Amino acid sequence: MKRIHLVLLLGTVLSLFSCTHKELCMEHPHMAPLRLEFDWRDAPSANPDGMCVFFYPLEGGEPRRFDFSDLSGGRISLAVGSYKVICYNNDTERVYFGYTNDFAMHSVFTPNTDIFSPLGLTSKVGVVPRADASEKVVSTPDMLWGCNVELVEVPEVLEGEAEERVITLYPHRLVRNYTLRVLNCEGLKYVEQMCGSLYGMSGGLFFASELNFEENVTLPFECYKADETTIEAKFLTFGDNPNVCNPHSVLLYIWMTDGKIRCYGLEDAKFDVSAQVHGAADPYDVLLVIDGLDLPKPISNGSGFAPEVDDWVEINEDVNM
What we know:
single chain; mainly beta; 9-stranded mixed β-sheet; 5-stranded antiparallel β-sheet
């Protein structure tokens, strides 16, 4: 009799334990150990300090973010299920990120800035000539590499399974290299410093679609003397809006040794670089060329920078067609 009671009691305990175990499994998702790898075949020269990866559950809920300092990847643990994925480098300084909880809307953009910000200066609103005063002036972006995946399956690990499950991502460049060269410049020895602006560009992009924002913005950039007759600038952009054939024009702001600030390009056809932007052989590596610029010899050799109304000299050169 005692033995029968003991067996019944043991069976009852095991039954209760089994029921409790099932309830816990239902309340807690099964986790799967994984190795995430970055394959850099599409960006072999990339050199970010680190990467971040967002996993968006298809059934909804908050995304999971993982950060990696090792560019080859690392090990993670993720709930079993289906995901959409976005990744990009996490070492940026001049860009902002929006809607990070939404796969489709997760975006990157740059903040508003001043037209003279590349030189660490501040302009006067309404005084500095602009190609299109209605456009916002925003910073140029940092270098960005990344990619997106519409579907990643994380299956449950089978008992006794020894092989490590791997998720491989293939980041590529997301921003474009722009180079401006102004050739055959006369009088560069009288220049103290200079910057420029390019208008009609996009201010950001969506990671999921890699489509640019449709709003047009103006990008300021620093210029320097490449040699005695050449002005050069190198900067990054998100590109333009491929769905709209926007005009693009360059303006140059040049501080002379006499303290005057001269603006070039307002009504000069050769500063219209629309055809060069739209017709670039590689839209991720664009060269803009302007041929010819005559800078007058200053009346005096004074220095200093005072962007007052009376200091502006707007230059509109005649172009022989």
